[in-house]
Specification:
transcription regulation (chains A, B), homodimer, 2 domains, 4-stranded mixed β-sheet, 8 strands, alpha+beta, CBS domain (chains A, B), Arc Repressor Mutant, subunit A, 10 helices, CBS-domain, two-stranded antiparallel ribbon
Chain lengths: 212, 212
């Protein structure tokens, strides 16, 4: 939304002197209160200013950019997560590769005897093991996995943006979605760069009137 | 931006009867032209309606949703692509795995003797080969790669959204960015789900006034 010069001036005045009445703003600009009425309506309706009866105008700090950001921040893990694939610590690396192909996932989550998260296994971990000299049938996944507490994870109420930042920072393709149980974490979902890509497409299409 | 009931009604009237004058709209709503003035100002300033002098109001089809979509459509491959890693068709699968670890990428692009794209090699392709019975040193990548013309690719002027859709549809993690040369394609970049994730973060932060 494009504001005109006078509207920008009004915002500057309100920023500095809030709360300020319409009459006072009009005085600053050397115009009548009636002249300002449409401008003040536009600024309050579009969320830039807030008008409190008998007090005056306040600056909300909300702009069209902020509003887009707020829309993005509404996208939560629970709307976009996938089903996790878990295997026990004792499973062999060979079994893990098979599981990855059968389930068509890029990451497996390893759980201990209580079913709590103990590690993460990526295609990269398995590829490294596979070209090594070890027999993949003899190596348990617990030897080659990334291990707690050095594992990035997220929760269902986290935002998609939080997870995107985490994946980039930790340089991983996926993180488990967890919830606390006892003194550990139960794995209840999976968030990957594929989920982020899908969230991005869904956000863009939600904003494309031709698709909706 | 939140519109009120009357503003929604005005948009509906203009959609059906454009071009229509302010007086005519006022008549439809049983109010005076003066009453409508702030509403019409808001609707034209925020881009919903266009006012042409001596003609009347038109519906532009632009809404705040459209404006966000237009912003997303401005993000192009050339702003977000990474450097590609290429290997010759004759390289061994073992050499390809080493290259993947050294360069820390999830996909390699395979080129023929003229340096033109002939295949794509993913971690999944290499993992499948690695747990097979073949000797990774003896298998050339040309045997295990996905081969032209069954390869998804993109160009620098494509949008990030186009590529996101392509990665989801083809179920791949990366596509080469190519340009035509002779009767083939030269590889000039790499677009992955990581690049999409970074584009998403960058879009969100570009819209976060606290970060800019």
């Amino acid at each position: 939304m494009e504001l005109n010069d006078r509207q920008h001036k009004i915002i500057e005045i309100v920023k500095k002197q809030a709360p300020i009445t319409g009459e006072q703003i009009a005085e600053h600009l050397n115009v009548t209160r009636a002249t300002l009425r449409p401008d003040l309506s536009i600024l309050t309706m579009s969320g830039f200013l807030e008008a409190r009866p008998r007090v005056g105008y306040f600056y909300t700090g909300r702009t069209s950019e902020t509003i887009v950001y707020e829309e993005i921040m509404k996208m939560q893990v629970k709307q976009f997560q996938s089903t996790p694939v878990v295997i026990p610590e004792s499973a062999s690396a060979y079994k893990a590769v098979c599981e990855m192909f059968v389930e068509d996932v890029g990451s497996l989550f390893v759980v201990d005897e209580h079913g709590l998260l103990s590690g993460v296994l990526s295609r990269k971990d398995l590829l490294r093991a596979a070209i090594g000299s070890q027999d993949m049938n003899q190596v348990p996944v617990s030897v080659i996995m990334s291990r707690m507490p050095n594992i990035a994870y997220c929760k269902q109420k986290d935002t998609v943006l939080d997870v995107a930042l985490l994946l980039i920072k930790k340089e991983v393709d996926a993180v488990p979605v967890v919830q606390e149980r006892g003194n550990g974490f139960e794995v209840i979902g999976r968030m990957t760069k594929t989920n982020i890509t899908k969230a991005f497409v869904s956000f863009a299409h939600g904003k494309n009137p031709e698709k909706s």
